[in-house]
Amino acid sequence: MIFCERCFCDEEIISIIRNYDVLGECQICKSKNVYTYDTDRFDDLSGLFDEFVSIFTPSRLLPDYFPRAEMKLIKSELLKNWNIFKSTSEADIYKIITSICKEKYQHMPELFDQPIGLEQLYDEEYLNGHSLLKTHTWNAFVDALKNQNRFHTNYINLEILEKFCSYIRKTYKKGSRFYRSRISSEKGLLPSEMGAPPSSKASEGRVNALGISCLYLSDSVETTIHEVRASAFDYVSVGTFELKKDIVVVDLKRINKINPFVGELDFMEHAINKEHLMKINEELGKTLRRSDSTLDYLPTQYISDFIKSIKYNGETEYAGVEYNSVMNAGGNNTAIFEPSLFECVDACTYRINDIAYHKRKIDY
Description:
Elements: E1 2-4, H1 11-19, E2 23-24, E3 34-38, H2 44-53, E4 57-58, H3 74-81, H4 90-100, H5 102-107, H6 110-113, E5 116-117, H7 124-130, H8 138-147, H9 158-165, E6 169-172, E7 177-184, E8 215-218, H10 221-227, E9 235-243, E10 247-251, H11 267-272, H12 274-284, H13 298-309, E11 311-312, E12 315-316, E13 320-324, E14 332-336, E15 342-351
Parallel strand pairs: 10-13
Antiparallel strand pairs: 1-3, 2-3, 4-5, 6-10, 7-9, 8-14, 9-15, 11-12, 13-14
Helix pairs in contact: 3-4
């Protein structure tokens, strides 16, 4: 079978296909004059995918206690939980995976044609050593932070969290520009007034706890104005912040889209943590209303505080975390642990002329 680079969103796979430097027509997506991979000629992908699919166990070999609801076809698993294929067709994914793993398919067709599961999901010994939350659920972790021990919990495996953070590093160069808003008067605010609040006035946020100063920045003027939740006819001062030196942040908006084929990442360890990584992503994207409790920030505050504490060779490794904007779809926010890394070089004031409300009826 011949498929092409456009069938994938995994950069490692795309790179392998491009390295063959063979242009042609794709039998899957019908693209023409694209880099292609012929499974009858090449086998680089076979080794990768053979190892990957081997972490799953066919239903007949799973223990009796394994929940049937957790079983699914491998084409469904790949479509739903792994950021590998661009295609949204299970049929296309099935064609690609069985052509890549043709020898494995001949020896164990049930791995591809029958329901499969991750046996280690119910192996307590394995989970305690390799799962981000050990044998606990996300809700149990959150409850422990809220009601049992806010600062020292045994519910999370911090070594695993640190490992996954290392795969979502993002570098910003000196001179990079970001934006921050504050509600103001028509007169506006000076650049010197646009920075993060001092610790004595720092309120709780998605990343910082009460009393810990943190500089919240956005990737655009549009995003930062949305984030400040300005009302119609408000005046908003927007500061332009410039980075003083190169920094590395953890791009948490990618935490559930880590490339499974990169570096030394263990396929099984990655697979059993998929659900936990997705929950972190969901928590960062959760909209909190003014009436909600600030306790709802605890999970992301805990994770961010740990990231802030990571050091290599005695030096702080990460300057902040990046996450999706809740208020402006497509926008990004970056929370900087040390506000002095940025300088506000300009400030201007906007008047909010109107606000568009979008509603959804709640059915009870």
